[in-house]
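Let us practice reading a record.
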Amino acid sequence: MDKKEARLRRARKTRAKIAELKVARLAVHRSNCHIYAQIFSGCGTQVLAAASTNEAELRNQVAAGGTVEAAKVIGKAIAERAKAKGIEEVAFDRSGFRYHGRVKALAEAAREGGLKF
């Protein structure tokens, strides 16, 4: 089993538990150059809000997309967009990534922005 398979196995276990809860899910994905956040509906079929360092308006706020500072900007942006849609509470899906560095920074920024998880 390589790193990606192990990460996806961890993600599958988390997503199965979140699916039982039937709550909105804040999914995070990170690559070397960018970080992405999406909020899915309780049934998992609709994307309710999204933010990433690929977006032009957010790209202007950060020098590089693969940094902790960029993750904080994305966390604040996803929290604002969720609040605008009336979403207060979500389940955090770290997609099998360790709760460390950029993933942790995004989660803490989203909490500061008003999301509860």
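A brief commentary: The radius of gyration is 14 Å.
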